[in-house]
Design a protein that fits this description.
The chain is α/β, with parallel strands linked by helices. The protein folds into 3 domains: 2-61, Nucleic acid-binding proteins (OB fold (Dihydrolipoamide Acetyltransferase, E2P)); 67-215, Rossmann fold (3-Layer(aba) Sandwich), CATH 3.40.50; 231-297, Ribonucleotide Reductase Protein R1, domain 1 (Orthogonal Bundle), CATH 1.10.40. 31% of the residues lie in helices and 23% in strands. It contains 9 helices and 13 strands. It has helices spanning 31-36, 92-104, 122-133, 146-155, 171-178, 231-237, 239-244, 262-268, 274-297, and strands at residues 2-10, 13-18, 24-29, 45-50, 55-61, 67-68, 73-74, 78-84, 108-114, 138-140, 160-164, 204-208, 211-215. Strands 10-9-8-11-13-12 form a 6-stranded mixed β-sheet, with helices on both faces. It has a 5-stranded mixed beta barrel with strand order 1-2-3-5-4. Strands 6-7 form a two-stranded antiparallel sheet. Helix 2 packs across helix 6 (231-237). Bound molecules: guanosine-5'-triphosphate, magnesium ion (MG) and zinc ion (ZN). Zinc ion (ZN) binds next to helix 8.
């Protein structure tokens, strides 16, 4: 039996890099996985059997450190959330949604603001300020600004990273700027819709700075219910609220209607960004409402 890393998943095949020879084998999953409802993921360390012609079978998956459903990947150290300042327009509710999901998985997010050549905007800068104050690292970049590209590159050192974000924000372009040998496909965004064209179709890991980075297909919806994110988990995933919530009167305060809520007090003092709380409240309602619908069905 051989040991290896799944570096790419495409059309039912898993491309496994053998740990010693670094040769790639095109593998199928064992039927047993399908029966147990387990899907091998890019980033999985696996045991596999080699058959003829560089092909094989994934037989066993090592225990995962973590796993993300969107994008589908396992064992990552950090997620680089790529948001463009324009084309597509910067979307703060989506940023808060992605941040909450990543925090709920206990993975470190880093915010990358791409296409800075397209727009200089005070509003976006004030957003950035807030996220920096609460502890997030943010890098503003564009594919032609080599200084900021170097800063992004430095993030990858010795880590397994994944780029995530909407279609068209420039994830693949960013990797090409860092290493032109990647030769990843990129495509202009649709003029009519102002959205990307879903150019990248699969998750794939690339070697970079003694680490690995995954380019992934763009997506713009994340369903809290599907990801089993409850209102309690949501509250803990807003890192700026979490610290303050020690001061809330009730343990497990969700900062909606409870009396003597420290988060709402800070909000009234303008110490919490209004939009951030608004997004939180919308997500809270979304989770609650889905629950009601779900209960009614039973
Ligand atoms: N002006 C400008 N355009 C950029 C920049 N980065 C990417 N683009 C353009 O944005 C478009 C989309 O870029 P991609 O790299 O394909 O975007 P993606 O995030 O990989 O998209 P998907 O693979 O569909 O998820 C392309 O036309 C790029 O040339 C940038 O820094 N500045
Ligand atoms: Mg792409
Ligand atoms: Zn509270």
């Amino acid at each position: 039996m051989h040991k290896g890393l799944i570096v790419k998943a495409l059309s039912g095949f898993y491309y496994v890099e053998e740990s010693v020879t670094k040769k790639i084998y095109e593998c199928r999953g064992r039927g047993a996985f399908r029966n147990q409802n387990i899907t091998p993921l890019v980033g999985d360390i696996v045991k596999f059997q080699i058959e003829a012609n560089d092909k094989g079978y994934v037989v066993e998956i090592d225990e995962r450190k973590n796993e993300l459903r969107r994008p589908m990947i396992a064992n990552v150290d950090q997620v680089l959330l790529v948001f463009s300042v324009k084309s597509p327009d910067f979307n703060q509710p989506l940023l808060d949604r992605f941040l909450a999901v990543i925090e709920s998985n206990f993975i470190k997010p880093v915010i990358i603001l791409s296409k800075k050549d397209l727009k200089d905007d005070d509003e976006i800068d004030s957003f950035i300020n807030y996220y920096q104050t609460i502890g997030y690292q943010i890098i503003k970049t564009s594919k032609t600004d080599m200084e900021s590209i170097e800063n992004v590159k430095a993030l990858f050192k010795d880590k397994i990273s994944v780029l995530a974000g909407q279609s068209g924000v420039g994830k693949s372009s960013l990797l090409n700027a860092i290493n032109p040998n990647f030769e990843l496909n990129t495509d202009a965004i649709s003029k009519a819709l102002g959205r990307g064209k879903h150019t990248t179709r699969h998750v794939e890991l690339f070697k970079i700075e003694n680490g690995l980075v995954a380019d992934t297909p763009g997506f713009s919806s994340l369903d809290f219910q599907e990801l089993n994110i409850t209102v309690e988990i949501l509250a803990q995933s807003f890192i700026d609220f979490f610290e303050i919530s020690r001061g809330c009167k009730f343990r497990g305060c969700t900062h909606i209607n409870e009396p003597k809520c420290a988060v709402k007090a800070r909000l009234n003092e303008d110490k919490i960004f209004d939009n951030r709380y608004l997004n939180y409240k919308n997500f809270y309602d979304e989770i609650k409402n889905q629950r009601v619908i779900y209960q009614k069905k039973q």
